[in-house]
Amino acid sequence: MKKIIGNLTLIIGVVISSLAAVEGQRVSRAAPVDLALLGEVLHTAVSSRHANDTPRMYVWQDRTIEAGATLDSEDIAWLKSNGTAQVLINRRAVDRESLPVSPDILGRVFASPVVLGSELETIRPGRLISSRFIQRLAASDLDTVRVEIRVPDPDIEGHTVREEVTYSLADGTAPLLGGTLREEVSLPVQLKSDSYIDEETLQRLQASALKEVEVKIPRNWSWNQWGGRWIFLVGILITLVGVLFKRARPDAAALQEEQLEVTRLREKLQELELALEDIGGRLDGMTNEAIHEELDKLLLGPVYTLAEGRNSIRSAHGMRVFTAVMDPFARGERKLNRAWSAAVDGYEDEARRSLRAALPAFREAREALPGTTPPRPTGFDGVETGMPLPPDVPIAPAESHWTDE
Fold first, then answer.
1. Can you name the CATH fold of 257-368?
2. Which pLDDT tens digit goes with each residue over 19-53?
3. With b meaning 16 or more CB within 10 Å and e meaning fewer, what string describes 71-82?
4. In whole angstroms, how far apart are CA 214 and each of 29, 47, 137, 203, 218?
5. Residue 285 and residue 298: Cα distance in Å, rounded?
6. Where are the alpha helices (DSSP H) in 54-113?
7. pLDDT single digits (tens) 206-225
8. String of b and e for 44-69 (b: at least 16 CB within 10 Å)?
9. Which positions ≥6 away from 130 have C-beta within 8 Å?
């Protein structure tokens, strides 16, 4: 239950924090009607018609302030006299400006793509024609371009077929969108918008003889002016509560269930190792079909169970043990998958090599999981304890812990 509550709390906290953060990126914000609106730009038009559409605005005079208007004292007085409580304004009146190409623009960011006429880029055939590529074609000196585009199907009305044509750029570029370039062309290099202007970029701009570029106006961020700051803090607080729930000690029932799952995984690891030892003893006489059949049983049986229950190992023993177990397990799983593919494709030798290589990896995984014991050696199941030991097996001394009590 604690895990479920913790997961839900984390989700709620992240969603609330994300919504608050996104609010700071909106192009407009609601602001109360007061003298602080002087010089602000109206985002949504305000008129007497808004009395019917927006209950919070009460504008009775027959007048309209259009969107994009810069508010002055007369506008503010009119809004207040008609009971308008708040309006939507742009967060920034202007978000870009054109500046001369000089060291003063270092550290600024391009507001729009910039074409460098002094640098050419060779584009090979096969390039998909996107809207950005169309802009580059339009800015080039090319008159025609050979492309593969969709044209109306002459045989079936309403259908199109792909056809290679030599297209004149003077006829517009809209039909090219989604087409494919069929010839090699050289186009001026275009710097992307939002690119950072450093020393090297400045030199490239100067080499292209550009006089000015359009850059973004830096936005000064203030915690006190952020309208969603309290919602964001609430989201962070809820997230921290979720983390505490996740890190809380599980109750007795959860611990018991977790231990039972880890015990089951131990048994599956031992089962997998014994199965691979058994297959390894019969491998030389097995056909590809038999290898494939045996691997299907392992991959859909113990290997699948171990992969699905791996999180129980991490919960019970921590990340270090989890890594020590799952790293060799993943290597063994890859070897089994390779052996399966080789057996299906008829590469018998490769299937045998990969299958034999999987056993040491799974044995390493079993040894890394605390509480596991080596599987009983194959072939000793029927040994009776009363039978005398072979001559080459030394008898343990009396003080040995192997003697019976």
1. Four Helix Bundle (Hemerythrin (Met), subunit A) (1.20.120)
2. 666 655 566 777 888 887 887 888 788 875 444 44
3. beeebbebbeeb
4. 25, 34, 21, 16, 13
5. 19
6. 73-81
7. 998 899 999 987 766 666 66
8. bebeeebeeeeeebebeeeeebeeee
9. 177
For residue 307, give the 3-state DSSP assignment.
helix
Closest C-alpha to 42, from 9, 88, 102: 88
Tell me the per-residue pLDDT of 174-205, one tens digit each, with 9 for 90 and over: 778 888 889 998 888 888 888 899 999 999 99
| 3-state SS class at 89 | strand
**Residue 30: strand pairing partners:** 88
Threshold 0.70, pTM exceeds? no
What tokens were used for 362? 């799974």
Which ranges in the chain are annotated with CATH 1.20.120.660?
257-368
Q: How would you label 347-376 residue by residue, b for 16+ Cβ within 10 Å and e otherwise? A: beeebbebbebbbebbbbbbbbbeebeebe
Local mean pLDDT, 10-residue blocks, the chain (405 residues): 68 74 64 82 71 42 76 85 81 74 91 87 87 81 86 78 84 80 89 90 91 82 67 83 70 68 85 88 86 87 87 82 90 91 87 89 88 50 45 45 41
Residue closest to 194 by CA, chosen among 111, 98, 95: 111
DSSP structure string for 134-200: HHHHHHSS-SEEEEEEEEE-SSSTT-EEEEEEEEEGGG-SGGGTT-EE-S-EEEEEEEPTT-B--HH
- Between CA 355 and CA 279 the distance in angstroms is 9
- How far is Cα 294 from Cα 134, in angstroms, rounded to an integer? 57
**Interacting residues of 343 by C-beta distance below 8 A, sequence separation 6+:** 288, 289, 291, 292, 295, 351
CB 149 within 8 A of CB 167: yes
Separation CA 240–CA 236 (nearest Å): 6
